[in-house]
Structure to design on (165 residues):
């Protein structure tokens, strides 16, 4: 019986830890070099520093992603509902041309950066990226307030943003 209780305890601990939300970015994500719309290099840490003291919604997307494109009206509605939030778009596009064309074509309003190595690269792996679009929220202190949702109208996202006001 003691063994059974011990195994159950270990199992529950593992499950609760795997469901725990990441509160800070891994060093791999922070040191990942991205590209600005002016074609300059910048690390993700430098990007976060640039918006320090602001609440941020991070939208990881790509112009080739049909779910991302279908979700853009929801993003625009979110921007209307929470206009004081900084919207940071991190693209998984393969090249600058596709990325900048996508920003213009879909009229994506916000701050834009391009990752250097796609969804399976360093940044994607460090945030456990398994689907796009992917939304994250960073609070004014730089802590991750919401680690993962895949819909811009997800109630967890809305409630997190309301709690930051």
């Amino acid at each position: 019986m003691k063994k059974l209780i011990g195994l159950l305890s270990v199992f529950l601990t593992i499950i609760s830890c795997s469901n725990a939300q990441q509160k800070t970015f891994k060093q791999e994500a922070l040191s990942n070099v991205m590209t600005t719309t002016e074609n300059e290099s910048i690390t993700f840490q430098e990007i976060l520093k640039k918006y320090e003291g602001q609440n941020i919604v991070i939208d990881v997307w790509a112009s080739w992603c049909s779910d991302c494109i279908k979700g853009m009206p929801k993003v625009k509605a979110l921007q209307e509902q929470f206009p004081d939030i900084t919207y940071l778009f991190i693209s998984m596009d393969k090249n600058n041309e596709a990325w900048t064309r996508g920003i213009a074509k879909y009229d994506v309003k916000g701050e834009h950066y391009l990752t250097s190595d796609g969804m399976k690269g360093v940044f994607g792996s460090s945030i456990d990226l398994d689907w796009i679009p992917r939304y994250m929220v960073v609070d004014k202190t730089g802590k991750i307030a919401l680690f993962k949702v895949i819909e811009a109208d997800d109630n967890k996202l809305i409630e997190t943003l309301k709690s930051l006001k």
